[in-house]
Design goal:
There is one protein chain. The strands form 2 sheets. A 3-stranded antiparallel sheet has the order 1-2-3. Strands 4-5 form a two-stranded antiparallel sheet. It has 15 helices and 5 strands. It is mainly alpha-helical.
Length: 448
């Protein structure tokens, strides 16, 4: 009887049967979600921006995948749920990455960098081929592909932040400060460039910006820019000299430049330099369709889901999703999207200024620069400010591994922000205790 009474009391503590079946699980879920919210730290503005951009991606991916679903005999809902699944996984990655102390990334930076080099070499020669470029490798067990340049980019910036934080006393030296930075950058960019020149250029530009902020000697930075500009100027010169304005094609390209993706680069440069929009060809099709989408958008746009050019614009769900944003939400919606990325950069610069430790400051700045630069390049391509690059819009374009690596980067930034908040909280507590002691001393003096 004693045991039966104990069991009865245990059930009675939950209330009636209805409360036991419904209220208890809800209470448990509420407590669990409350604990997660309490443990979620970091910059609240960055969290809000990430939520806004990912929610916008759901609307835009659902709206822009109609033609893709038709070609592959699927439903648009399948892509919507796929994107929703990626977002859920992405938020879990951000949460767990931001809970890790950012000093952990300092310890794994060298290992991650060394792992990324053989992966890039393997991808270059044995990766999945697409458009004469090899950017992906297929994972054997889950049978999914991922872009190794995303891992290399992340590991490079972690490694650069580590070197910059350790070499501040000798950063002005060419051999002790500059070479340990530029050699890893050169290796990564040269391994990525043959298959993905735009990503290599973005990584190089972000690295130069990071070196400038890290007090690397200006003369060394200018030397790097000068050397990097030699192949760029040569490529532009070849594109300009081989373009036939009558046939609108490249002619007499040197034999050593006819392999790999070099003809594609030359073609894109020529399309950007010499096409005025009146030519209607396969090369200008994407650009012309994007311009039509932008023109149809106007100030206010056609409204969510009312895009017309999504049925004609290739890669409207990835590379040219910003044109769909303008068509559906107008210049006001596009301006708001640009503002979100600029606000994200501003908040990361704020973290950089507040972080007392060099590694965390450089890491937050490097990862924010690469995300915002990528967003600006994607927007510039969509509005014909830059040649077509194949760069996606971070957190908005329909993605796979690139979306998840973006979430890792944001999680690391929030990890730095979380530690900055903790340091500020401790400093505030010390300040309050000091003020209390001073007030007690003053009251004692007055009483005496």
């Amino acid at each position: 009887m004693k045991y039966l009474n104990s069991i009865k009391q245990w059930f009675d503590s939950f209330g009636n049967k209805e409360e036991l079946s419904i209220a208890a699980p809800i209470k448990g879920i509420g407590e669990m979600s409350g604990n997660i919210v309490k443990k979620t730290k970091g910059d609240k503005v960055i969290w809000t921006i990430v939520i806004i951009l990912t929610m916008a991606s759901l609307l835009l991916v659902y709206s822009s995948t109609g033609s893709l679903a038709y070609r592959l005999s699927r439903t648009t809902e399948s892509y919507l749920f796929k994107q929703l699944g990626l977002i859920v996984v992405g938020f879990l990655i951000i949460y767990f990455a931001h809970r890790v102390n950012y000093t952990f990334y300092y310890r794994v930076a060298l290992i991650a960098f060394l792992i990324s080099i053989p992966l890039l070499i393997y991808t270059l020669f044995m990766g999945v081929q697409l458009n004469e470029g090899s950017r992906w490798i297929k994972l054997p067990i889950i049978n999914q592909t991922f872009q190794t340049s995303d891992l290399a980019k992340l590991s490079l910036f972690m490694f650069m932040s580590r070197v910059l934080s350790r070499k501040q006393k000798t950063i002005k030296s060419f051999s002790k400060g500059f070479l340990p930075l530029i050699i890893p950058v050169g290796i990564i960019c040269m391994l990525i460039a043959p298959a993905n020149l735009s990503t290599a250029v973005l990584i190089g530009g972000t690295s130069i910006m990071l070196m400038f902020i890290g007090r690397v000697k200006t003369r060394h930075i200018l030397l790097t820019i000068g050397i990097a500009m030699i192949p760029v100027v040569f490529l532009i010169s070849v594109a300009a000299s081989t373009y036939n304005k009558t046939t609108h094609k490249a002619e007499n390209i040197p034999e050593f430049m006819s392999g790999g993706r070099i003809p594609t680069w030359i073609s894109r440069i020529q399309t950007f330099m010499f096409t005025d929009g009146s030519e209607d060809s396969e090369k200008t099709y994407q650009v012309n369709q994007a311009k039509i989408a932008i023109a149809n958008g106007g100030w206010m746009g056609r409204g969510p889901g009312n895009s017309v050019q999504r049925n004609f614009l290739p890669h409207s769900y990835s590379d040219f999703i910003f044109a769909i944003i303008i068509e559906e939400y107008g210049l006001i919606g596009a301006s708001f999207m640009l503002l979100m990325y600029l606000l994200f950069l501003f908040r990361c610069i704020r973290i950089y200024r507040k972080c007392p430790f060099a590694f965390g400051a450089f890491l937050a700045l490097a990862l924010s620069f690469t995300l915002v630069f990528q967003a600006i390049v994607n927007m510039g391509v969509n509005v014909s400010l830059f040649p077509n690059t194949g760069v996606t819009l971070p957190l908005v374009s329909m993605g796979g591994s690139s979306f998840l690596f973006t979430c890792v980067s944001i999680g690391i930034i929030l990890s730095v922000a979380r530690n900055v908040e903790q340091l500020e909280g401790r400093a505030g507590e010390v300040s309050e205790e000091k003020n209390k002691e001073e007030s007690n001393i003053e009251s004692n003096i007055v009483a005496a």
